[in-house]
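Z., the sequence and structure:
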Amino acid sequence: MILGDRPSADAIPSLIKRNTALFASAQALQGSGNQMVTALSVVMVLQFTGSALLTGTGVTMLQLARIAVSYPLGKLADNYGRRPAMLVGLFLGLSGAPILATSVVFESYLLFTLGAFVFGMGVGATQQLRVAVTDMYPSNRRGEALGYLLTGSLVGSIAAPVLIAVSEVLSTSTGIDKLAMPWLLTPVLIVPSVFAILAAKPDPKHIATHMADYWPGIMENARPSRGKMTFKEVLQSRPRMTAMACYAPAQGVMSMSMAAMPLVLASSGHSLTRISLAVTIHVLGMFAFSIPLGKLVDHIGRTKVIWGGLAASAAGGLLMPMTEIYGPITIGGFLFGVGWSAVFVAATAIIADATPAEQRGRAIGLNDTTASLFTIALPLTGGVIADQFGLMAVGIFAAILTMLPLPLLMRLRETSPGHFDEARETPAPI
């Protein structure tokens, strides 16, 4: 918890506003890479192997890469600043793209796996952008800051399809394989992100430790940092532990339900166009309301928004497989998208509230590592449940998962938005 006077509701200082816009731009451009892997990897693997069994390789590599890179880059960000860590991530993205293009030329599944992993580390590095924006804002505006950043992901969801469409036109005129061309064009997205990160000055970590210099009239004292922020130390803070416990199943349920939604729609006889529209509506749920949700996090508190987010995730997971009618299925997808967004913003804000700036990168990294494990495991688990018990059982399973962290959430006492009763919220040493 950060001590001191609560910040006023004055306008965002121009330097902070400028840096936020730069980071949101980088989020939009680099974050679109996640969609490119999702959109192209299935077709690439089918072309290389002729087997549907391996078509999930691309998405799996993204999550394994995030597990591998989240904590090391968080440590780098804590030791040397947020900008160097993000630049390393962008370099990884630039390195992975040509490997993916080369895998198409040689029709090599092994090269594809390597390229997806390296590129995925670059995509995973964008998670440090969350640390950067929370560094720059006082405690009662962190949700708002995260909302601005997440809105960049909405723009990124448009950039990926546009790049793929342009690459199809260029591949026809140049004779380059249409699956290789998007990866050759990836620097169009990554290089501007590099310049955006370089232009954001000073480093957000410096702003976090000198908050009063950038927010006139604001008195916020940074907590002293202790230890190197191991997983054990994360769990010794009830706010951090609760945030992680809420975010991991929300992320996993979103991934599991997202994987199930096209199956529900297809088995109900809906066209590919309608399936694509439903996915778009789900993406809008994830990102379109992030700014108002962020402001709500700051206004009514982190825990209340998490309650609402988990409820929306559970309702969406239950509604989606309940009927063959297009409207309810689509509304279900929209709801678990909004639920994920609410939990994402609120849980990230809690971790930032409860963690000194010098350890924040590693804390967020450990949170992402845990969530990635759920993201890998739950879609596979959902597939087994659907095969054995039907799609409705997947919805029930999703709802049960969202309820698991509720006992922890009930015990978390938020005295005011972003402030917790530390005397009551610190568990016994592990």
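The chain has two domains: 11-204, 229-418. The first helix runs from residue 14 to 49.

Let me know what you think.
H.
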